Amino acid sequence: MNRVLIAWFFLCGSLQGAELAVGVGRVAITPQGPAWLSGYASRTHPSEGVVHDLWAKALVMEDGGGGRVVIVATDLIGLPREVSDEVAARLRKRYGIERPQLMLNSSHTHCGPAVWPGLKLMFNLSPEDERATARYAEKLVEDLVRAVGLAMADRGPAEVFVGHGSAGFAMNRREPSPKGVRLGVNRDGPVDHDVPVLKIAGPQGKLRAVLFGYACHNTTLGGNYYRINGDYAGFAALEVERAYPGATAMFLQLCGGDQNPYPRGTLELAQEYGRGLAAEVGRVLRGQLRPVRPPIGTAYQVVDLQYAARSRASFEAEAAAADPFARRRAKVMLAAWDTGHPVTSTPYPVQAVRWGKDLTLLALGGEVVADYALRLKRELAGENLVVAGYSNDVMGYIPSRRILGEGGYEPVTSTIYYGQPGPLADNVEDTIVAACRRVFRQAAHAGRVPEPGPSEK
User: Domain limits of the chain?
Assistant: First the structure.
């Protein structure tokens, strides 16, 4: 539908009660041939075939008054800032999509390709493998732009609805032990089992797209598995699309940084969780849903997250460590010291999208733990709130103050693989929550419904 028809649609009134223009696009992003998979440092060779394709799927929504949001969901470990920034720059130039209007989310499958330069210290690649991994990232930028372009060309009148379900296979993985917190099973740990579902229906009620989310690592399959697939999220999307032919199913990874599927370890379990999640999505779609209406307001900020202080001497000692990953990290950090720019902070994206008073989506960068979603839902009680992690830049784990104090993989060990100097500073949680409150207010202001004039009352 071209711009003239879209303008006519908004001026003349909605069709079948529709209030938004929506477009959907998708592009396969499965590597052509063997590729190094990301997420596990234990892997020793490239992939060994494909279970199902990986996708970049784009959803464009416009309210007719200048409000717009573009959500791109990818079957990937995460997008590094270098990729996200380039995609955003191209979309702004080509379609006038401003940065607050673009949300890029990754499912965090550990059976997808490495996205250079994300997690590059995890790999010991040959020069040719490194070039191939970089080429994939370059093509990925083009594919993400193309997916959005297809969605822009697909825009048409639509009704949008939201509902919530629940799935129980996520388990907190931070297990207390006599030697400290380890990766395992913590049945008493915080979880967020919410399954938000967004339904997009065209004229005559035909289902065009479904956006659904869950807070859980896509790690049903371990580091000994080498076939490309989207883990439970990929199988869930396939099941939803099988149940609703012609519809596009998009998965949104929420705050699952400290959540694992349980039990885990086989392809059959990944398929089972996918079927279960898809069944819950279907149940929500058949139930009572709340309309999602314009206007659309968006806001985006980048804040600096500080790292806990470390000395050059500590990196010099680490350079002689037995752990090869620690030695690689030390080499990078010492090189930064040598240039006079030691790494002391990281830029962190925080984004809000608000549809009138019906729904608010907060999108946070990095591997965000469940504590954030639970806190924000408490503090913004009364809001229909969805909090996503793994959005716009995945630079590392984002622990809460509680988890920083406990130590373990997420706040400490993982920083080696992500090439961070060490744990984040104690103020990380308060810094992020304050930024969330700011973008929430800004999006609400940008998308507020004007008060009616005297002639309209």
Answer: 3-297+349-399, 310-338
Average pLDDT, the chain: 94
Q: What per-residue confidence (pLDDT) applies to 3? A: 52
pLDDT digits (tens, 9 = 90+) for 399-440: 999 999 999 999 999 999 999 999 999 999 999 999 999 999
Q: Which amino acid is at 127?
A: P
Contacts with 164 (C-beta within 8 Å, 6 or more apart), sequence order: 194, 195, 196, 197, 284
Asked whether the beta carbons of 17 and 156 are under 8 A apart, the reply is: no
How buried is residue 454: exposed, middle or buried, by Cβ count under 10 Å (0-12/13-18/19+)? Answer: exposed
Q: In which band, very low, low, confident or very high, does the pLDDT at 175 lie, cut at 50, 70 and 90? A: very high
Predicted confidence at residue 19, as pLDDT, reads 82
Q: 274-290 b/e with 16+ CB inside 10 Å = b?
A: bebbbbbbbebbeeebe
For range 201-210, the mean pLDDT: 94
What's the pTM?
0.94
Write out pLDDT tens, residues 57-79: 999 999 999 999 999 999 999 99
Q: How many CB atoms lie within 10 A of CB 80?
A: 18
Residue in this structure with the two tokens 């379990």, named with its chain if needed: 269
User: Distance between CA 278 and CA 273 in Å, rounded?
Assistant: 8
| Cα 183 from chain centroid (whole Å) | 22
